[in-house]
Design brief:
Blueprint: E1 26-29, E2 32-35, H1 41-44, H2 54-66, H3 69-77
The structure holds iron/sulfur cluster.
């Protein structure tokens, strides 16, 4: 979705979903809230987190840092 309108096939973009709340890519247009990166946000969230989401990637990275204690201990042994 852009200021010119939707470039999705058939010209129909879908509004952002609940999980999109807080994402920087969501933008308000006269017809409602849409995602500037993805025409159908619900598809993005079907199988896990949206890979374009600006609000979850930061949280996911923080998680990644936490779930690698094994590697961290190996690194510390060197
Ligand atoms: S990038 Fe993903 S999370 Fe962000 S508004 Fe678009 S679909 Fe939603």
């Amino acid at each position: 979705m852009s200021a010119k309108g939707c470039s999705y096939s058939e010209g129909i973009c879908h509004k952002i979903v609940e999980k999109c709340q807080g994402c920087n890519r969501g933008a308000e247009y006269s017809t409602g809230w849409f995602c500037s990166a993805c025409p159908d946000p619900s598809v993005k969230w079907k199988s896990g987190n949206c890979n374009m989401a600006s609000h979850v990637s930061a949280a996911a990275e923080a998680k990644k840092a936490k779930i690698n204690p094994l590697k961290a201990s190996k690194r510390a042994r060197r």
